Amino acid sequence: MTWTLGWIGWILWFAIEEGAALARGGTPATLSGHIWKWFAIGNDPHPRALTRLRRFALLAGLAWLTAHLLTGGRF
Predict the structure, then answer these.
(1) CA distances from 10 to 45, 55, 72 (A)
(2) What is the dihedral angle through the alpha carbons of 42, 25, 19, 27, rounded to the nearest 10 degrees?
(3) Less Cβ crowding at N or C end of the chain, within 10 Å?
């Protein structure tokens, strides 16, 4: 039960943080805005190799997480 409450708390904190970011600063203050900034998405037509590597790491991590969640942890 403790773990469940911790995850519920984390989700609620995220919702509050994201809602406050939207209310105060709009997209640049949200998680999406930060990820776009951190990974230089949408503002560099010719990214350097390190930027492409960081973007690939993000894509690979999100692909793994999606597969992991959709397969019940088998992947």
Answers:
(1) 36, 25, 21
(2) -10
(3) N
